[in-house]
Amino acid sequence: MIDPVTLKLNMDPLILSALREDISSEDVSTNSVMPTSKEGEADLICKQDGIVCGLQVFERVFRLLDETSRVEFYVGDGDAVENGQLMAKVYGDIRALLCGERTALNYLQRMSGIATYTHGVASLLEGTKTRLLDTRKTTPNLRIFEKYAVTCGGGNNHRYNLSDGVMLKDNHLGAAGGVKEAIAAAKAYAPFVRKVEVEVENLDMVREALEAGADIIMLDNMTHEDMGKAMELIAGKAEVEVSGNVTKENIAKLTDLGVDFISSGALTHSAPILDISLKNLHAV
Questions:
Q1: How much is the pLDDT for 192?
Q2: Which of 10, 44, 94, 141 shows a CA-CA span of 20 to 30 A to 157?
Q3: CATH H-level superfamily of 122-269
Q4: Domain ranges within the chain, ordered by starting residue
Q5: Helix, strand, coil proportions of the chain in percent (round to 5)?
């Protein structure tokens, strides 16, 4: 699970890369109107209802440009925010505030959008035993930020990367020669502390996965009827995950299955941003 400490330990190189992308040599606009250092402040204002996430990333952008900058927050990650709400005041060298504004807002808007979308999906699973998971369908070099945002919205992280666990998908099964062969190979190779998860697409594959001793069986893009039959076959002998085009619009139809997990790539690849602005910049 990506938590605030993990995020803090890993974010600086990624933020610096984003800043270098936006400032290849200098900020010509800022240097034109502000040739020398001058202290200023600005307001961070929410322009949509949602769940805020990424505040420490937002602040860190300005701190990397100006170590004397600071942000006075009135909300915390995971809090519900409203249109027009003043979320923070930002203080520092006006040049740093201007240079970092877009990068800081890009992170905050993206992460808050994911947290907001995830919150909406997770609320549809309330009262069930099913846990909502994200996937590896993330933006390159933004995974740690996006997966942290999922947790702020009330979701849970699936494996972080390919080193985290064994998940045998259709092409792994094809490469190994079948379900049983792939599971046997994984159990022989992977450390004993790793669970083995296998993706199946029909009831015959469910039976093979059970016989081979899979720890987790992922029902991928199966009909609701077949998923119900799969649950009867599995009968608690393995944990069950459902995946395949799961969105806010259709997840409620899966709650009667009683599965352990539902994973949704939409949490990270389809969430719209939350509209947030940095306004009223002025010298102090």
A1: 85
A2: 44
A3: Aldolase class I (3.20.20.70)
A4: 4-121+272-283, 122-269
A5: 45, 20, 35
Choosing from 137, 169, 187, 195, the catalytic residue is 137
Query: 91: which 2 tokens?
Result: 């203080």
Give Cβ neighbours of residue 157 (< 8 Å, ≥ 6 apart).
Answer: 1, 2, 133, 134, 147, 150, 151
Q: Is 137 a catalytic residue?
A: yes
CA 8 – CA 231 distance, rounded (Å): 40
Name the architecture of domain 4-121+272-283: Alpha-Beta Complex (3.90)
pLDDT tens track for 181-195: 999 999 999 988 899
Two structure tokens written together for 79? 């809090």
At residue 120, the 3 state secondary structure works out as: helix
pTM above 0.70, yes or no: yes
Residues facing residue 86 across a β-bridge: 45
How far is the C-alpha of 210 from the C-alpha of 52, rounded, in Å?
42
